[in-house]
Amino acid sequence: MKKDSKKISIEYLALFGGIIFGIGLLILDSLGALSFLRSGISFVMDPVAYHGSYVGQEASGYFETFGRLNEFRREYSELSMKVYEQEIDSAFYSTLKEENEALKKQIALGNTEQKYVLAKVLSPQENNLLRINKGKDAGIAIGDVVVLGNMYIGLVVEVDKKGSLVRLPSNRGSSLEVIVVEGDIESARNMENITILTKGVVEGAPDGIKIENMSMNASLKNGDTVIINDTRVGEYLVLGSLVGLSENPAATSRTGYVSPIFDYDRLMTVFVIIES
């Protein structure tokens, strides 16, 4: 019993002593006597507190981001749909603009006495062939000529009800009679006041459209205009410009290549001449 009383007395004494010690520290601190101790503790604890606060903020931001993940996904999906819709609108506008330009060119340069069918190119050229979206139902037949304005595109070689296959002049199966006229394409568009320099034959080749059998005596130069003059085509149509003209004086005829007016891969709209 005495031991318990002694133990309780020591506890109260320790508590009382702690209170006195704390009050003493407060008094000394208020008098500035413990400034050295405060500075030391701050020097050690401030970086710890700063890093702890920084880590806490980063962790809070991470969990906030994680919690809003579904919201971010929804916003991303909405933005993706808006971009997709804008791309569709832009593509539709570009198609309409290109078709309008093609129609203007056809009206300005085409033969008004002929009947044309407007067609869209369905796929880029493969083996120098173009597939278009009009066929027998539109009155197209094998052998019909495909043009854009007064520019030659190719001949229809296959046709079904809904589509056709067009052979380009760069195709290895293509062979056409042509004439070469003096001057560039602009000066030869209307076939008026032009000078025919020579006849020739154009054929599709692995490295482009080759022109052969041109007269050695003709005053040819690179940049002259090559025009289709073949019975299968039935009229004068511009093909392109003469390039890569041979200069061998021992040859019996001259050869070269034709740079077509169009990049066939970029064609979107063409016109097929059909029988009225």
Could you describe the 3D structure shown?
39% of the residues lie in helices and 28% in strands. The chain is built from four helices and twelve strands. A hairpin with an 8-residue loop joins β9 and β10. The model has no long low-confidence stretch (mean pLDDT 76). The strands form two sheets. A six-stranded antiparallel beta barrel has the order 1-2-5-4-3-12. The chain has a six-stranded antiparallel barrel with strand order 6-7-8-11-10-9. It starts with a helix and ends with a strand. The chain has a domain at 114-274: Beta Barrel (Thrombin, subunit H), CATH 2.40.10.340. With 276 residues, it is an alpha+beta fold. It has helices at 2-30, 35-67, 69-109, 185-188; strands spanning 115-123, 129-132, 145-148, 151-159, 164-167, 175-181, 196-205, 208-214, 225-228, 237-243, 254-260, 269-274.
Describe the secondary structure blueprint for this structure.
Blueprint: H1 2-30, H2 35-67, H3 69-109, E1 115-123, E2 129-132, E3 145-148, E4 151-159, E5 164-167, E6 175-181, H4 185-188, E7 196-205, E8 208-214, E9 225-228, E10 237-243, E11 254-260, E12 269-274
Antiparallel strand pairs: 1-2, 1-12, 2-5, 3-4, 3-12, 4-5, 6-7, 6-9, 7-8, 8-11, 9-10, 10-11
